[in-house]
Design a protein that fits this description.
By secondary structure, the protein is α/β, with parallel strands linked by helices. The protein is built from 20 helices and 10 strands. Strands 3-2-1-4-5-6-7 form a 7-stranded mixed sheet, with helices on both faces. It has a 3-stranded antiparallel sheet with strand order 8-9-10. The radius of gyration is 25 Å and the shape is globular. It starts with 6 loop residues before the first strand and ends with a strand.
């Protein structure tokens, strides 16, 4: 078999199949491999007219079909299946070849694999891919890590198949070494969780407090999508809310069980944020909200719990309230992205990745699930100030959130009064207030820690670490 394929894809489930088709559509010859030959044959039979495919039946044949340096994209389940594929193919590769993991791997696994393969002269490129099956086919946002050398060879191919932002630039960039790409994809998914939770809370308030029907709320979201909230998630929210269930004639949203599932990347985001000491309270509340929704037995057993006497707003009040909810949603969204970018910056510092936050925002402008118009603003903010400590330190965002805060607070107050849970709105406002507060109760917390555990404290009036000898004789000693 001649070595004619510029790229190969193994693992031809929906995402792998669509990525392979995307490469072929962009003029590349694509080698195909799957554990079962039937999927390989089916892809060629159904989509062979889209480009040049080389169907292979064995690992050896697959590797032989690839030109040097070999570029082998792995699209299988994260964890042990990925390790199994690496173990199968690595012995067949030569120094300079590369394995590209396009799955949702944990970045720590990617770091381990990259180190092990680097010692064998093989490049391992942990690559975040966002956009679902449609994005994989028509242009996803791509977040590759790995060595700069591997990106020099692989990058042009990925940039060709990536989504293009409104200015024509590809939604793909070299994120950084080893696990940087999968780390950024993980945080992307955490932000996605927060974004979806905030949209859900806005919907619940518009329905339970303002009294709008799902179809009316769909129209509200369509209007929002023409302004600063213009985004893929707002767009599809309107479509979901406008949809009528064919079997019952009811609004689709009313026949869906209210238990949201999750695949793990949101949990990873929160777990790693705790390890890094980074507050991502908006993302965390979104993860916990999904967890609460899944505890059906606990929720059923709690139906007897008392709540406030709720009232539905009048027509004029409802319209004004909808405007206030838009303000709360936008402000909370800014905070959620602020927290996510803080986590990426902290991870970059911890692992010496040197991630460019402006480039990250730029490649999220198209293809990915959280693509939104205001990512242009985030890109511009980091381009203007590469060392920006927080998005809330950007003058434009600070002014917008200041203008929104009165309505933001009113919406949360209304939610509390009416008994509508809004953990995302409340957590992001608390974060905002924590950052702007001149003093936090952490001073008391540290005093308590010194009292019961001699954990010491620092003072505001002089340098050093101190401990008070608590009890009858409260004297102070410098540690």
């Amino acid at each position: 078999m001649s070595s004619t394929a510029q790229i190969g894809v193994t693992g031809l489930a929906v995402m792998g199949r669509n990525l392979a088709r995307n490469f072929a559509r962009n003029g590349y010859t694509v080698a195909l491999h799957n554990r079962t030959d039937a999927k390989t044959r089916a892809l060629v039979e159904e989509f062979g007219d889209e480009g040049d495919f080389v169907a292979t039946e064995s690992a050896e044949g697959f590797v032989a079909a690839l030109e040097r340096p070999r570029r082998l994209v792995v699209m299988v389940k994260a964890g042990e299946p990925t390790d199994a594929v690496i173990a199968e193919f690595a012995p067949l590769l030569e120094p300079g070849d590369m394995i590209i993991d396009g799955g949702n791997a944990h970045f720590a696994d990617t770091r381990r694999r990259e180190k092990e393969l680097r010692e064998r002269g093989i490049h391992f490129v942990g690559t975040g891919v966002s956009g679902g099956e449609e994005g994989a086919l028509n242009g996803p946002s791509i977040m590759p890590g790995g060595s700069a050398e591997s990106y020099a060879s692989l990058g042009p191919l990925l940039e060709d198949i990536a989504a293009k932002a409104a200015d024509g630039s590809p939604c793909c960039t070299h994120i950084g070494p080893d696990g940087a790409g999968h780390f950024v994809k993980m945080v992307h998914n955490g932000i996605e969780y927060a974004d979806m939770q905030l949209i859900g809370e806005a919907y619940q308030l518009l329905r339970d407090v303002a009294g709008f029907s799902p179809a009316e709320i769909a129209d509200i979201f369509r209007t929002w999508n023409t302004g600063r909230l213009d985004s893929y998630l707002i767009e599809i929210t309107a479509e979901v809310l406008a949809h009528t269930d064919a079997a019952t004639g009811k609004p689709f949203v009313d026949v869906v069980l209210d238990q949201a599932e999750q695949k793990g990347t949101g949990r990873w985001t929160v777990q790693i944020a705790l390890d890094l000491g980074v507050p991502v309270s908006g993302i965390a509340e979104a993860v916990f909200a999904r967890a609460v929704s899944g505890h059906a037995g606990l929720r059923e057993a709690s139906r007897h719990l008392a709540g406030p006497s709720a009232r539905t707003l009048g027509k004029g009040e409802a319209a004004a309230f909808a405007d206030q909810v838009e303000q709360a949603l936008y402000a909370s969204k800014i905070v959620s992205y602020t927290q996510g970018f803080h986590q990426i910056a902290a991870g970059s510092e911890q692992y010496d990745w040197n991630i460019d936050l402006g480039n990250v925002a730029a490649i999220w402008r198209g293809g990915c699930i959280i693509r939104a118009a205001f990512l242009d603003r985030i890109t511009q903010a980091y381009e203007a100030q590469p060392q920006l400590p927080s998005l809330l330190a950007d003058k434009g965002f600070a002014e917008e959130i200041a203008a929104a805060q009165d309505d933001w607070r009113t919406v949360i107050n209304t939610a509390v009064t009416q008994g509508v849970p809004t953990p995302g709105f409340a957590a992001t406002l608390a974060y905002y207030d924590s950052l702007r507060a001149p003093r936090l109760p952490a001073a008391l917390t540290q005093g308590q820690r010194d009292y019961f555990g001699a954990h010491t404290y620092r003072r505001t009036d002089r340098e050093g670490t101190f401990h008070t000898l608590w009890g009858g004789n409260k004297t102070e000693a410098e540690s």
